[in-house]
Amino acid sequence: MARLDSLEKCHRSVAHSSSGQGHRPLKAEITGSNPVCATTNLFLIFNSLTALESVRLLSCTVQFVYNHPTSLIGVRHQRKDIMEQSSSANPNRAMIIIAHPDDGEYMAAGTLSKWAKAGTEVTYVLCTSGDKGTSDPNVKPTDLAAIREVEQQNAANVVGAKNVVFLRYLDGSLQNTLELRKDLVKQIRKYQPDIVFCQDPTRRYSDWYINHPDHRAAGDAALDAIFPSARDYHVYPDLIDEGYMPHNALEVYMGTISEGANAWVDITDTIDTKIAALFEHKTQVGDDPVRLEEIKQRLKDGAAKTGSNQDMRYAESFRYIKIS
Q1: What is the mean pLDDT of residues 95-120?
Q2: Which of 40, 187, 211, 321 measures 20 to 30 Å from 248, CA to CA?
Q3: What is the DSSP letter of 244?
Q4: What is the value of pTM for the model shown?
């Protein structure tokens, strides 16, 4: 929160400058750890002016200067191990928002299990239950969804997650709708994560890969829910009535390939947990020992390549955003 003495100083500066004539610059300087709070407090200052002061203020130019506290200066954008270098180095709560069961295990199970072992409360939010994830015409989507929810719960247990939420949108037709955004806002406000993981909506295709449209929709909806909807009090008044108060999650980790990454997590100690969690998705990986060994080796080779330039034996990479 902005400091009271700075707030009072700013109020005096606004009131004094607004009493003059003509167009003149007005500089308001606030120090605090959160620019959103600082901006809100500045608004409250303006709102407290008398009617005459407000009219006079219209002829002024307001220059707003927000000063970050020195404790946040020098935070690195190119990070190696988030656990060691993030401002939320050992987060109390982390949430992962994904389109389908098994997306989270491929993207971040090594990181999530590492954090869970360190005491982080991990929450999974599944937009769909993967009801289209089979080529078998004899399997009903409703039956498959029920099976995959059990598989996801089992995988989350391996990771060490505390909560698993299924929103149950239809697989294959997920869209970034206002309804989905509201559902995600509700979960963010309920579990109040310090950090949110999501899929990268800008990752559309590569030379060898076309990203699933559900992945892009889930990533878009997650980012829109994180900012500004989960933060803003008046966006969903009915959620306020239900007791879901605004929450500001200021760190986001989007799953991405190394070329687009700016943060890496050393998962050498949890690579086997990641693989074990993925193998709980039996409808997707099967039970053939040869195939499972191939998947295991492919995951290890990929994690080794990701960590090779970061002095890590195995790593997961992310596109990191710190909202300020």
Answers
A1: 98
A2: 211
A3: -
A4: 0.74
